[in-house]
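Blinded run. Sample ID left blank on purpose so nobody reads anything into the name before looking at the predicted structure. Input follows.
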Amino acid sequence: MRRSDVFPWIAALTLMASACTSTSDGGGATEPPSAGTPPPAVDRATVSDVEIAEPRWQPDGSNWALNLSWSAPAGVTLDHFVVMRNGESAVEGVPGDSWIDEDVEPGVRYRYAVFGVAADGATTRPGLATIRTGTPAVADARLEGTFEMLMHVDSATGTEAPVSGGGTFFRFEPRCSNGPCDVRWTVRSRTTDAMLPRSGGSYGGRVRTPFLVRNCFGTAIDEKVVVRFRVVAASPSDGRWRATRIDGTIDETSSWSGCRTASIDWNVRGFVKS
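Blinded prediction complete.
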C-alpha cells in the first residue's frame, strides 16, 4: 500500500475515536460531561424528618424548652428556615437545621411547621410535627397563692349551735424561692397563722391557734388543730408549675376549764384564685 493511501485511513480512524472518547491528563478514558438536569424547584421540595425533643419537665420552670431539628431538602439552595407554631410565626431567619423553642409550657399541645426559604423568597413545602408536652408530677406543684375553699363538716360534738360548713379563703406562702416547699398557712378573717411542712404532695401538721370553735363563755381560745392538705391538680402559671386545686381535712378540738370539750372535723376542697 502506498504511503499516501495509509495516512487518510489512519486520519479517519483518529477522527472516529476522538468523537467517541476523551482523554484525561492521566491517560484514562471518562464519560463526557453531562449537560445536567435543572435543579428541582424550591416550591416542590419538602423539609423532612422534623423531630421534637422534650425535657423532663421541672416544676420551677428552669428547663421549659423544646428542641426542634429537621433535614433540609436535597438539591435546592436555601437561605434560611422559618418555624410556625400553632399557625403563627414562632421564629424567622433560622440559619441551620435546628432551633430551641423556649416559649413553651408543660401539658400543652403544639403543632410545628418548618419551611425552607430561598434567597429570592421562594419557600419549600413544610415539614410537620406535633407534640403534647409532658408535665411535672402533681405532687411537685408549688402550693402558692389564695384558694377559695369550701368547708364541709363531717362531724361535730360539744358545740353550742349546729355547724354544717361554709366558705372561706386560705392563703399559702412558700418558704422558698422556687419549686415546692413548706408553706405558711393563713386564713382570711381569722387569726390562724401556721407553718405547714411539706411531704410529697401533702402539707400538714398540728398547730395551736384560735380558729372556729369558741368556749362556753363566747371567747376564742387556743385550739388543737390538725390539718392535712393535698395537691390534687396543677397547671403552668407565670413560668412555674403551680397547684390549682387542693383537698384536705381539718380536725379541731377546744376545751376550757369549766366548759365542755368541743370538736369539729372538716372536709375541705378549694381552687386557686391568685
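Unblinding after everyone has recorded impressions. Residues 69 and 98 are 4 Å apart (CA to CA).
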